[in-house]
């Protein structure tokens, strides 16, 4: 999922705190407009949501193996990489474990979803404090988790024989969670793209299971998929990926070099669908559709230097290395719950949302090391969420390991680690003579603070009283400033 550059000026910071934060930054909150592409008048929920769950689930979950160079969901492509410099670990693993005659599609029956409990997923997402989720309806291997008239390569016709998208959306229908769908526009290999799959070891062309021949990949296949998702499931988010031309050692993928996804057409359909109803709903699409006016920018991974942006954006990141379930996950690459909360605080202080990924097993169960981290994030948010949800940035996001957010009635200081018995903050932070500073999750009495020649010093309790270790961020809420 290569990162896209550019930034939208179309998202509206609709919450009062968000508008105030934008003003402090010197940016005017852009007015909502409905003229272009039939867009609804506003997208009020996305800028305030702040935290969502990404779900990578598919046939690759049955193979459940990635290496240092390739994540598990890229297994089909990694099988075809022959250059050691590009990483041949997956190719060698497959040959050693399954042999040269076993193809990726032979694992479709092993993707069973036999223990898939979408209601349990929804409860977990709610307990994690998420405000939305985004499920992979089709990843780069071309396998769809929903039935559609363009292809039989899907979970209703093959494998689980179930509408996996529909079941999760149905389970969440009475939840406050917004529901989103990821869709890979292109695919690793497809006869319709001029890249039919081949056996990686013999080079012989092999069937693309469930494929129906088309002459126009975009309008007869990709757009049919997207219209089916829009009409049947009414998603609040459309999250595109797999849109560019790439060659990483296993052949060219996703699309030819010269290509037009005609995304303005399909997104006009999406926005009209949301607007043309008695009670219009707010929907958003990310920036990877290669269309005229993205609703928000996506930044992939936590190894980027996040920057404060005037419009809503989203950091999509993983708990480990792989996005799909990986039995070969390196324990050293798995982030702690404290690290995830630190990343959430940093992203939110810079006006972003964090979309945190999980990769269920092929049977639909979520590994304990993923769910336990989600629950810890949720426990932290239950105490400190008032500094996260609906917040807006200050004129700068951070000083060192100290983050700032603003809401309607408070200014929030978020040290990424427990600072000890005293917290020193810069003198221009808006703490005035009448300000009251309270530690969320601590005692209710205001904390003493003094202004010095070097700034402001806030006295803290000798130890934390919120039940978290010192690695977790704390939140100090400043009111009457």
Automatic annotation (TrEMBL):
It comes from Amycolatopsis samaneae. Gene3D superfamilies: Glycosidases. PROSITE patterns: TAT. PANTHER family: ALPHA-L-FUCOSIDASE, ALPHA-L-FUCOSIDASE-RELATED. Alpha-L-fucosidase is responsible for hydrolyzing the alpha-1,6-linked fucose joined to the reducing-end N-acetylglucosamine of the carbohydrate moieties of glycoproteins. Residues 1-34 form the signal peptide. This is alpha-L-fucosidase. Residues 40-385 form the Glycoside hydrolase family 29 N-terminal domain. It holds the Pfam family Alpha_L_fucos. Its EC number is 3.2.1.51. It comes from the Bacteria. InterPro entries: FUC_metazoa-typ, GH, Glyco_hydro_29, Glyco_hydro_29_N, TAT_signal. Belongs to the glycosyl hydrolase 29 family. Keywords: Glycosidase, Hydrolase, Signal.
């Amino acid at each position: 999922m290569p990162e896209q550059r550019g930034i939208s000026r179309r998202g509206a910071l609709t919450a009062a705190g968000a508008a105030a934060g934008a003003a402090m930054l010197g940016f005017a909150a852009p007015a909502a407009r409905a003229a272009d592409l039939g867009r609804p008048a506003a997208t009020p929920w996305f800028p305030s949501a702040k935290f969502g769950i990404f779900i990578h689930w598919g046939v690759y979950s049955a193979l459940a193996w990635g290496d240092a160079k390739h994540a598990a969901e890229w297994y089909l492509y990694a099988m075809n990489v022959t250059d050691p410099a590009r990483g041949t670990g997956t190719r060698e693993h497959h040959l050693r474990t399954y042999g040269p005659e076993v193809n990726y599609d032979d694992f479709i029956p092993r993707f069973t979803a036999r223990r898939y409990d979408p209601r349990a997923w929804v409860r977990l997402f709610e307990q994690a404090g998420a405000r939305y989720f985004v499920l992979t309806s089709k990843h780069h291997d071309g396998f769809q988790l929903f039935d559609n008239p363009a292809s039989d390569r899907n979970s209703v016709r093959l494998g689980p024989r179930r509408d996996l998208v529909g079941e999760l959306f149905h389970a969440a229908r009475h939840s406050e969670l917004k529901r989103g769908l990821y869709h890979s526009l292109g695919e690793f290999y497809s006869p319709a793209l001029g890249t039919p799959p081949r056996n990686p070891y013999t080079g012989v062309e092999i069937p693309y299971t469930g494929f129906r021949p088309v002459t126009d990949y975009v309008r007869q296949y990709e757009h049919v998929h997207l219209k089916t998702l829009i009409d049947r499931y009414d998603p609040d988010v459309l999250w595109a990926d797999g849109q560019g031309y790439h060659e990483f050692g296993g052949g060219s993928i996703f699309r030819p070099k010269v290509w037009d996804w005609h995304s303005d057409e399909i997104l006009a359909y999406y926005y009209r669908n949301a607007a043309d109803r008695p009670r219009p709903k707010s929907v958003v699409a990310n920036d990877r559709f290669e269309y005229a006016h993205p609703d928000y920018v996506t930044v992939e991974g936590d190894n980027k230097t996040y920057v404060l942006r005037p419009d809503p954006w989203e950091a999509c990141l993983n708990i480990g290395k792989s996005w799909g379930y990986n039995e070969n996950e390196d324990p050293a690459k798995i982030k702690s719950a404290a690290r995830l909360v630190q990343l959430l605080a940093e992203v939110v202080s810079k006006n972003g949302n964090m979309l945190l990924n999980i990769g269920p097993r092929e049977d639909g169960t979520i590994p304990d090391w993923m769910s336990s981290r989600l629950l810890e994030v949720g426990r932290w948010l239950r105490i400190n969420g008032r500094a996260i949800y609906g917040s807006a940035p200050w004129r700068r996001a951070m000083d060192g390991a100290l983050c700032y957010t603003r809401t309607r009635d408070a200014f929030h200081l978020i040290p990424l680690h427990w600072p000890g018995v005293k917290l020193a903050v810069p003198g221009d932070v808006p703490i005035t003579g009448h300000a009251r500073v309270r530690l969320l999750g601590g005692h209710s009495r205001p904390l003493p603070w003094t202004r010095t020649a070097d700034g402001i010093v806030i006295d803290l309790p000798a130890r934390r009283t919120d039940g978290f270790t010192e690695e977790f961020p704390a939140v100090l809420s400043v009111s009457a400033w």
